[in-house]
Write a structure and sequence with these properties.
The N and C termini lie far apart (45 Å). This protein is 22% helix and 38% strand. By secondary structure, it is α+β, with helices and mostly antiparallel strands. It contains four helices and ten strands. The relative contact order is 0.13.
Length: 157
């Protein structure tokens, strides 16, 4: 049986437009009659979430407006663009390892965003996460030296 989804644009004061909402959620009913709700997240997947029930109970100031499936799918493209808006234009990063007291502590990658921001991320067990290692080194609130490495080396650390 194909799932029948009902899509909702979640609009807020910061994102008041159904065309570019803060979030898109959807509901569907399984073969046992259980209602499921999910939202398209920053991880670019549909995940279970209770935003619709929080709006309906008054816990959230956001508003849920019914939209078409096409509008819901269009939001996936909007969310993809939001998530990747600071990615390097050329797709290239510079990689470094932080050496502290003679041992490698972590790996970072740096780049200049399309908006001109000098950004970085630290490699963690769950992937690359935004960080501020270089600014901490510059302010002397963190010790160590950054040594250039390859992407492969960074992802092995």
């Amino acid at each position: 049986m194909d799932r029948q989804y009902q899509y909702y644009a979640i609009v807020t004061a910061a994102f008041p437009s159904e065309e570019e909402p803060a979030l898109v959620s959807r509901r569907w009913i399984d073969q046992d009659g259980v209602v499921h709700a999910e939202s398209f997240t920053d991880d670019l997947v549909w995940e279970p979430e209770d935003v619709l029930s929080r709006i309906e109970s008054g816990e959230s100031a956001a508003e849920a407006r019914p939209i078409t499936e096409e509008a819901g799918l269009r939001f996936e493209a909007i969310q993809y663009a939001r998530v990747h808006m600071f990615d390097p234009v050329d797709g290239k990063y510079e990689y470094f390892k932080l050496i502290e007291l003679g041992r490698t502590v972590l790996a970072i990658r740096t780049w200049i965003s399309p908006q001109g921001y000098d950004l970085e991320e630290t490699h963690t067990s769950s992937g690359w996460q935004r960080s501020h290692v270089r600014s901490k080194l510059e302010r002397d609130s963190m010790g160590g030296d950054l040594i250039p490495i390859t992407q492969e080396e960074a992802e092995q650390l």
